[in-house]
Amino acid sequence: MSDFSGIWIPLITPFADGAVDHAALRSLVRRYADAGAAGLVALGTTGEPAALDAAEQDAVLATILDAARGEPGATGARPLPVLVGVSGNHTASMLERIEQLNALPIAGVLIAAPYYIRPSQAGIIGHFTALADASDKPVVLYDIPYRTGVRLELDTLLTLAAHPRIQAVKDCAGSLDTTLALIRDGRLQVLAGEDVAIFTTLCLGGSGAIAASAHLRPERFVALYRALTHGRLDDGRRLFHALAPLIQAAFAEPNPAPVKALLAAQGLIRNELRMPMTRASDALVARLKALDEPNEIAKDAEMSA
Q: A GO CC term (predicted)?
């Protein structure tokens, strides 16, 4: 059994003059290790995998895995586990990808329901079961009907929870009833996938979050997790209230444009995306920069956490 608790960051893919910026990507990995992130997600939605060809995807994953190992004896040497996003709506092709990933030192695979074709719940169960049977690594279900066009119903999730390699769910369905039922069932670790739901999910007993906005203030997100899981509700509430405007702004335009814009403003990457994704608007960039100013109340809560 793997542990998927804590704050996981679904890495963006930085570009420079149209090509993948591997140096910037490596620096981001070590930055989040130093910040206390529990793990990383490679080639998730935030990483724009649909805009990468197969060779680029493999190269991005190789860079992340190498940087995530850390350097023994060096500052920031703490290794980070890496989940890998696997998406598609052709089960046979996804099985081939799973076989490739079996050979790599990854923490698991993050798999969404087949998009666009909107299969039945029986078809979804068969799809995930086939992929989990083929995987040597733990499987994290990704329930995001906003993107796939189909949700994983509670009965489907509870059925899949019986599979020995299906261990967690990235919960983006927006159903408090489902979130609570999964937490109470206890077989799947529940990770908030909607960043604004992190506070609620953790207070209900969820295991953590996969949070794109945690790119921006990773130490503060880690402090939020630690405060809430160690019973410091007041600290956690102050941290979340301070983070909430930044979280909301990070999704005011299509992800990952806002996150990339603020990372670029911080000097960490270039503000580049690949079509059909476009840069965040100037107005949103100005809003993000204003929200990124230090907040003394949040800093105090972060220190106590």
A: cytoplasm
Q: Is 137 a catalytic residue?
A: no
Number of structural domains, the chain? 1
126-130: long-range pairs with CB below 8 Å, 24+: 127/91, 128/160, 128/163, 128/166, 129/160, 129/163, 130/91, 130/95
pLDDT (tens digit per residue) in 11-33: 999 999 999 999 999 999 999 99
- Is 46 assigned to a binding site? yes
Q: Give a yes or no: residue 39 inside a domain.
A: yes
Do the domain assignments include residue 300?
no
Full-prediction pTM beyond 0.70?
Answer: yes
Q: Which of 32, 115, 137, 142 is catalytic?
A: 142
Residue type at 17 in one-letter notation: D
Q: Which of 170, 260, 289, 299 is catalytic?
A: 170
Residue 86 belongs to domain with CATH number: 3.20.20.70
pLDDT in tens, 51-97: 999 999 999 999 999 999 986 555 556 899 999 999 999 999 999 99
Domain span at 58: 6-230
Asked whether residue 1 is assigned to any structural domain, the reply reads no
Give the SS3 label for residue 32.
Answer: helix
CA distance 225 to 5: 10
Q: Is residue 102 part of a domain?
A: yes
CA 18 to CA 202: how far, in whole Å? 39
Residue 7 annotated as binding? no
Q: 3-state DSSP call for residue 168?
A: strand
Nearest to 6 by CA among 256, 229, 182: 229
